Amino acid sequence: MSQPHLVPTFAVISGAQVQHALQDREKQIVDLVEATYHLHAAGESVNPPSYFLRFPDRPTARIIALPASIGGPAPVDGIKWISSFPDNVQAGIPRASAVLILNDHDTGYPFACLESSIISATRTAASAALAADHLTRNRLRPTRIGFFGTGLIARYIHTFLTALGWSFEETGVHDLSGDSAAGFRDHVQQSDATGQVTVHETAEAVIRSSDLVVFATIAGEPHIGDPAWFDHNPLVLHVSLRDLAPEVILASANIVDDVDHCLKAGTSPHLAEQLTGNRDFLHGTLADVMTGRVTPPTDRPLVFSPFGLGVLDLAVGAYVYNETARSGHLHVIEDFFHDLRRHG
């Protein structure tokens, strides 16, 4: 006979607790993200298409649902619900806000709600740092980095790269907001990073002066269209997905995190597919590179376009939950589930 399932307790984990659980754990999180990519590539995950909730009266805003399930030795299900309201920045509050719900594998009951903007930024930065490592193993390691877009995601990516031992002789910074660019420059200078930090006035300048280019903008459509700006064959971490015109994508080697996810919702690779009618411009996934099935060419720019998989949020969220529980600081909501008798 099967064992009876118990209704799990329900806990709420605040942003402060999330940050505490992840503080100075960059190497562990990158290893976790790498393991999760391997599970996903092996078919031990369920990662349906993300759902975009858009608003006719607020065309720049959106809320995205990312449901997912991870198998393997520690299975967990759940969903991230993340909003992007760019106008928030002008009001002095962050653009993105999010929660993550974790569901019990056996009963389906949700057992935790976590503040997730930090989890989302962390998994994004870990994925970018992991890609930078694997995608430079057969080419010269970059010594000049450029950040195009200087918000929270750029800060997290910089933190992860430096924590994993990257150092740069030059750091370039460009943002449409001069205040944001200056603030990010100050962040880099106050960190443990070495080398010169330069705020560039133009997109072309920051791209041409960088061997590693990080796009972390809120662009809704391509705004970089000249492949000649990339003639020095940099590695491009195209985290924001919609900055590059199809012409730049087609002139580059292209690696994604998941083919079907990345080629939709008007991303730059999706536009390239629509232009050409095929996916021949894709060289493979990051998991293909990690396992040696694909070795990207070095005679052209190399672009990594990660759509951002819900399984990564789940993996990091479960890590935070376990660390918080281990520390004895879970905030459990007593009697969250009520009226549990089938017939009253």
Could you name the key traits of this structure?
single chain, 344 residues, alpha/beta, eight-stranded parallel β-sheet, 11 helices, 24% strand, NAD(P)-bd_dom_sf, 2,3-diaminopropionate biosynthesis protein SbnB, SbnB
Account of the protein in words:
It is built from eleven helices and 16 strands. By secondary structure, the protein is α/β, with parallel strands linked by helices. The strands form two sheets. Strands 1, 2, 3, 4, 5, 6, 7 and 16 form an eight-stranded mixed β-sheet that branches. Helix 3 packs across helix 11. The longest helix has 19 residues. The model has no long low-confidence stretch (mean pLDDT 94).
Largest β sheet strand count, sense and barrel closure: 8 strands, mixed
> What would you call the structural class?
alpha/beta
Helix content: 25-40%
Number of helices: 11
Give a count of the beta strands, DSSP E runs of length 2 or more: 16
Q: Whole-Å distance between the termini?
A: 25 Å
Q: Which radius of gyration do the C-alpha atoms yield?
A: 21 Å
Beta fraction: 15-25%
Give the quaternary arrangement of the chains.
single chain
Mean pLDDT score: 94
Give start-end ranges of low-pLDDT stretches.
none
Shape: globular
Order of helices and strands: EHHEEEEEEHEHEHEHEEHEHHEHEHE
